[in-house]
Amino acid sequence: MTETDGEYENEYADLGATTQEAMDIAETSMDIVRQFVPDETLADRIRQKSVHSMGDIEFQHLIRFTGGDDLGDDEDAPVRAGARAILEGANIVTDITMAQAGITGRGHDCEKHKAIGHGAELAKETGMTRTASGVFELDKEGVYDGSIATVGNAPTAAFALADCIENGTRPAVIVATPVGFVKAEESRQRIREVSEEYGVPAITNVGRRGGSGLAAALTNELIHVAKDVRTDELDLELTAEVRASEDVEEAR
Fold it and tell me: How far apart are CA 50 and CA 107, in angstroms?
């Protein structure tokens, strides 16, 4: 095992934790979550992480999985696509600084980018939000193609990303959980629509809740899944149905 591989020894070593006590706390928290959330599929891991992040057991029912990959359009497809992108060192692109800061820098070789801070001239000329103009600017530079596109705060960024997809941009996966009372729900619905129409895998939620913390946590779980693939603890090339049936057989 190389020194790098040594970071991945634990079955669930939180990549944000750096001490044994912190890792123990993370593991204990996830053990509690698994008492309330199924643990059969890759999608279940995302549901677990959403509950862990939001502190709400019922939040597992608000997560949605759309789009597909080479294996199909089952609910694990966005997780498989995201993990593959992590393993390939794809760009991770967030809407704002908070979401970017919440995504671990450990366990992957991906470059992290953020839309905010780009496209200032476009925002000034058009009056659109800085996050939306930043999405368009980064898209023009090709940053979003093949990326893990994470939107945690700004509905306008999600709308802009959907427009980019309609115009041919193809992220590897989208994690979109913008929060709020003004067009947040509608922006996530828009992401689901383009996800289904163009086959781009996406993880979203319904309702008004969400936020950068949730988006970062779900993106981090994609990194955890990739870690498990890298250390041969997980076979990525299984559908959710097969994975669940194998778990059933193992339990018998």
Answer: 20
Cβ(201)–Cβ(170) below 8 Å: no
Overall pTM surpassing 0.85 (yes/no): yes
Helix 212-230 and helix 42-54: axis angle, to 10°? 140
Three-state SS letters, the chain: CCCCHHHHCCCCCCCCCCCHHHHHHHHHHHHHHCCCCCCCCHHHHHHHHHHHHHCCHHHHHHEEEECCECCECCCCHHHHHHHHHHHCCCCEEECCHHHHHHCCCCCCCCCEEECCCCCHHHHHHHCCCHHHHHHHHHHHCCCCCCCEEEECCCHHHHHHHHHHHHCCCCCCEEEECCCCCCCHHHHHHHHHHHHHHHCCCEEEECCCCCCHHHHHHHHHHHHHHHHHHHCCCCCCCCCHHHHHHHHHHHHC
For residue range 157-189, what is the model confidence (pLDDT) as tens digits? 999 999 999 999 999 999 999 998 989 999 999
